[in-house]
Backbone:
């Protein structure tokens, strides 16, 4: 059971990190890309 919990936690952390990075990229790059075009 412990192994399952660890794997689930790792997957959740990875997904959360990916989402946060995506949001930061959109917030940082989005306005600049819009202003450029």
Residues:
């Amino acid at each position: 059971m412990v192994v399952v919990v660890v794997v689930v936690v790792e997957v959740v952390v990875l997904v959360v990190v990916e989402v946060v990075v995506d949001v930061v990229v959109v917030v940082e790059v989005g306005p600049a890309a819009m202003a450029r075009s």
